[in-house]
């Protein structure tokens, strides 16, 4: 079965540094998402992206966050100036465009540790 | 987003059926009922979804009450690999809409 691929699997950074988390969605999918999960907490929606623009974002997704689809295959999440509370597992997901409320395919995640 | 209510935890024995309940009394007419699960140290994984009718796939069955205010995920023969957190999520009918995860049900499968 096709997979969503995320790199790196672990990222350690210093507070205030910029980080870019990378994802390769499934090739024929048109919707892309980022979610995060702080240790021991719920999975939280960050942003969804369709047709080269943000279609929906949560209150977590503030000006420190941005997303981009720089080419035909990658989807990235950038955090401009990381804070300690950004430490979490970040999941990328993608889905097709269908008429019946399509399912999401999630990657294995990038564990971000901000020191 | 409409809210769902699930038990915090459930236990089952291997090779027995498991019925995971979910209440969603404030569901709207265009909300789909989705189930995802999360195995330890992994990303969420789609299980099944439906709108009004019961649904079956290779992983599970979804039984939806006639008034749609509750649903039940059925694993026909639990395996040790099915031990995970199971999330019942209402998702708006528009394409690309977000999934709002709750706390889910932690399923333990005993050998």
Task: Explain how this protein is built.
The complex is a heterodimer of chains A (115) and B (111). Chain A has 115 residues and is mainly beta. Helices cover 0% and strands 50% of the residues of chain A. Chain A contains no helices and 11 strands. Chain A has strands at 5-7, 10-13, 19-24, 31-37, 43-50, 53-57, 65-68, 75-79, 88-95, 105-106, 110-114. In chain A, the strands form 2 sheets. In chain A, strands 2, 4, 5, 6, 9, 10 and 11 form a 7-stranded mixed beta sheet that branches. Chain A is globular. The mean pLDDT of chain A is 94. Chain B is mainly beta and 111 residues long. In chain B, the strands form 2 sheets. Chain B has a 5-stranded mixed beta sheet with strand order 1-9-8-3-4, with no helix packed on it. In chain B, β3 (32-38) and β4 form a beta hairpin. The model of chain B has no long low-confidence stretch (mean pLDDT 95). The interface between A and B is medium-sized, with 28 and 23 residues.
Q: Most extensive interface, residues per chain? A: A-B, 28 and 23 residues
Outline type of chain A: globular
Q: Tell me the distance between the termini of chain B.
A: 37 Å
Strand content of chain A: over 45%
What's the helix-strand series of chain B?
A: EEEEEEEEE
Largest sheet of chain B: 5 strands, mixed
Mean pLDDT of chain A, nearest integer? 94
- The amount of beta strand of chain B, in percent, is over 45%
Rounded Rg of chain B = 13 Å
Largest sheet report of chain A: 7 strands, mixed
What structural category arises from helix and sheet content of chain A? mainly beta
Oligomeric status: heterodimer
Number of helices of chain A: 0
Separation of the first and last Cα atoms of chain A: 36 Å
Q: Categorize the overall geometry of chain B.
A: globular
Provide the spatial order of strands within the biggest beta sheet of chain B.
1-9-8-3-4
- Indicate the percent of residues in helices of chain B: under 10%
Order of helices and strands of chain A: EEEEEEEEEEE
| Radius of gyration from the alpha-carbon trace of chain A, in angstroms | 13 Å
